[in-house]
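Box 3.1 A note on notation
Throughout this textbook, protein chains are presented in two layers. The first layer is the amino acid sequence; the second is a token string describing backbone geometry. Keep the layers aligned when reading.
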Amino acid sequence: MQKEILRTQEEVDDFLEKIADSRPQYLALDIETDWFSDEKFSPLHLWLDWIGLYDWVNMWFIIHNDTINYEGLDVIIHNIPLITQNGKFDITVLLNLGYITDLDELTIHDTKILSFLCDENKPSHSLKELAKTILWKEDVVKLDDVGKKPIMEKNLLTMNKEGQDVFKKDELTPWEEKLWSYCIDDCVNTFELFHYFQKNIPTPRIWAVYEKIELPILKLLIEMEITGINVDKNYLAQIEDKIQDKILELQIKIYQEAWTDFNIGSAKQIQEIFLKLEIDIPEKYRTPKGWISTWVGALKFLEEEGYKIAGLILKWREFNKLDTWFIKALSEKTIHWKIHCNFNQIGTVSWRFSSSNVNLMNIPSRSDEFDIRKAFVAKEGYSFIISDLSQAELRILAHYTQEEVLLNAFTNLEDIHQATADKLNIDRNTAKTVSFWILYGMSSYWLAGTLGITRVKADEIIKNYFSELPAVKKFIDSCYNTVEQHKFITTILWRHRNFPKYGVRTQYPAHSTEEQKKAIRMQDFKDKSHMERQIVNSCIQGSAADYIKLAMRNITKKITEYNATILITVHDEVIIECPDKDLEVVGNIVKFEMENAIKLKWVPVEASLQISKFWCK
């Protein structure tokens, strides 16, 4: 391997000329920053140390220097496909610093996404772990081996005839030597992994999902993170004062009910208060040690039984969570009246998005004076177009099952939960809970606890549901059979979720006792039940993820010319910022793409559309 260090304008220009002549098929890219990839810091606020580029034969290290003109590098990067690992981070930093100017013209590959597509069950998709488990490399250089960057390293410089400090050609400081090895490792391993995944992708359909959906979504997420969203800090301050007042009010009422003060955030102290108040509760709401449970189901039961303190504690938790999890987090993360969230497209095994640096997925939707979402505001001259898919998972369930009850309700624009309730002769809330029990693969124990009924009653409701909606039961059984035969389930776009151990019995160790064999059989049963709860969920949730990603990709293609952009996505909802003058035309585009991303069999898709100056429901 030939290695070159590029510190000066002349060296950078020579490199650009060489690579323009050789035109390699791919370039592996790795950047090193002052904070590396620490997720506590946004890529927009990092200092670039250097860029590593590798083409299978040559390795180049471009030392970042504000005095060098890197304009030619932008042309090279745009003309040669880049192979990255966690490319969203690398590209965001380079875009922010001006190394990349046109994201649309860039061809990016990402081995982390490819790894997840091939096997989402891997304990880690980090580059170091993939190098060990796929490339069989044991001597990978770790970040801990590099250490923190020293403030000053004197042997970096020498003096020229004029007495000016200049860099020693092709010489590195001790710390840079370590970073050099680390960067070489990353580039070489990324390059080799990409070629491995090219040859070993499970099916051509999965490669199509990667190229046609995941890579465009990768670019979209980069744009979303760089753009950010405006936050009204004045509104946050006002709502924080109101929430603090509410928390204090609830705290006083709880102390009055308890006849003493205590730490409301301590489950142990709540249990001790319940004991002093001589509260009685059924055994199922107690811990194995006999204490009254403090989980939501137990407190709701106590509230219904007339114990005011339980309801007050639930309210206190709700407002305390609003304050600590969201208000304070938003205030801390907002810079120059904007927040830049990190969106992760492989954050869940169902391929749903997750977010960090403020978790937007968990911000509650409220219609009262404590609505945090109203703090997210459009910039001047713009408005939000907010679109949300209606009952996406249940529509996909209807598509797969062709269940008459579901098809009729959606076709006739009926309330799906009321239609289910009428068919089962139960109330709407119970029907809604049972439907989500199906979608999320919960146990009958969970259903009983959620509805506050006995396990026997929960089993009766489930049995009746499958009796009245037999196509749903048939679909679930077919999912189990598919996984038993192929060890994976697919989504609507043929994305895989792997279950290699489904239906596999654990072999008894030699000389096992009957008691040990029984324990093994019991564990096998628990493992299989757990996998069965995930199988249907993976198919339905994964298909919903396919749908919203495809819709977002199509929307982005059509609204860019109107200077409109997708800012955030939460579950099946997208928020677009659009110039006020183009709201009607962009709104029509958004609604059409949200409702037609994938044609479902005999099931119409509905998407709501709302225009607002702030994020609302």
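The chain is about 50% helix and 15% strand. Residues 514-559 form the longest helix (46 residues).
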